């Protein structure tokens, strides 16, 4: 210890420039240094008590660095063993080697304190801690446009510019020729009309822009399915945090950058990011990267979120995009064309008149009130010549002013403003006045059915096994083996889930509305235990539902006897074409010949006539580990009812009376 003090004291003297020959104060310098040295050493040991223990080998530095989070004015209280910059770059750079270097996706989840099966805890404290460490899942919005911006936009209209030019010339020549008391009428009236048009248009667009910004914030708040505390639940996209496990299915938007955890047949449409129309397969081995803003085109999966908000690729791209739209509406284009044509004709006529009048004036053809020539060479004064030329030019300008319809922009603007108020009274948000004209030009409206014309609140109301209606005869009439196959097919061939906190609470179903309706029916009517069915079987292969095939299938192996089973479900007409036999209610196997097929098709048509969504279930036991699509046995059919939304009938009738054709777009039979 003494040797260490002597060595450090020597360095201390050199750094301060203390002379070695000064012996009088040497003891005091040494005493002061010992006090400082011992105090600092004592404080250091108190803060790091483990460092007082003897160590045989040097300690390695941790493989992560501390990150200073900037944004939202929140202090850095990160306790996660991960470098945020490195975590963000994994997806941005598609760094597969970096993931392997970290130990795989599971190691990333561990560093983010995420249980890959149960998710994060999801309590407010945990969510807040992750938001402080990794920021929020929100993006910078472009600044709101001011009233001045809309005034400038209104001045850019071609008709307005022509009218302003004509008004200025008319005002100048009018005052020159008739004096300020009488000469301002023509030019002044045009200026008043122009400024009325600009005021009405800019104020209306400004107000609607403010209202539309509020609406866009609400419309962007989509719900995302996540796993938190072993429970699937819907949360706002703005509440997604780093470490969340997100459940994705066909049609879902990827809410943040992340890594693929597990799933089947996942294909993603990345055209919004790359411009490429081809779908990209995402899997755990070669491409586990999921990018915010892309859409799931096929399959389903679970992902772990690694970056949110402005740290994502989508956030970077959105911050650099200028969203101004300068495209003209059809009416604006036609008016500009008309005004341009009128202006050209008016200018041509005005120029011709100007030339003729100037020639007549300078040749002495024109006479004054006394019959004398207005211009006499060598006699007319400069002032007389200027007054004569000004009068001629004023006549030419008058032709241009008369040719331009200054009342047209005002009439159009007032008409559209009135239409906008009428549309807003019907709960239609109008962002720009020109949208009223665009809507007025519509001759056909294409509308989705599910969730638009209907309430999207589905429930199974019909159940058929073969050509027997179980809804009428009761479930006791159906063979137990058939019901067992139904339970297995529903539990294992689904992207939804069933959650029940305890035996006394109600079931919670998650997934698409169709999946929730099927799961609810199977649990409440067939007494299906989804967890037990999953424990008794091993899934070998999955083909997820998509809008082209309209069906989904699963290949599984029973853990009890090792038998391999195929289960399909989907649109009734699609699944029926894959079947060669069917079961009746007693469990008897029958060939699906011409007569049998007609009976099943009549059942399907009957349910479709009642506006029911018809879903068929099929099964096959096989010896090959291959998901076959032929030679199946039809288990049965269910009919799902989706109630019509109130007011739809009246709205469709009103459109038809107005001459607007309605086209319903649906994938249902």
TrEMBL record:
Short name of one Pfam family: Cation_ATPase
Statement: the UniProt record of this protein carries the keyword Transmembrane: yes
Coiled-coil positions: none
Domain Cation-transporting P-type ATPase N-terminal span(s) in chain numbering: 98-175
GO molecular function per UniProt: ATP binding; ATP hydrolysis activity; calmodulin binding; P-type calcium transporter activity
Chain ranges passing through the membrane: 158-175, 187-206, 345-363, 385-418
GO cellular component: plasma membrane
SMART domains named among the record's database cross-references: Cation_ATPase_N (SM00831)
EC numbers: 7.2.2.10
Enzyme class: translocase
Record membrane topology: Multi-pass membrane protein
Keyword Transmembrane helix listed: yes
Localization: Membrane
PANTHER family per record: CALCIUM-TRANSPORTING ATPASE 13, PLASMA MEMBRANE-TYPE-RELATED (PTHR24093:SF434), CATION TRANSPORTING ATPASE (PTHR24093)
Family per similarity comment: Belongs to the cation transport ATPase (P-type) (TC 3.A.3) family. Type IIB subfamily.
Protein's UniProt name: P-type Ca(2+) transporter
Annotated source species: Punica granatum
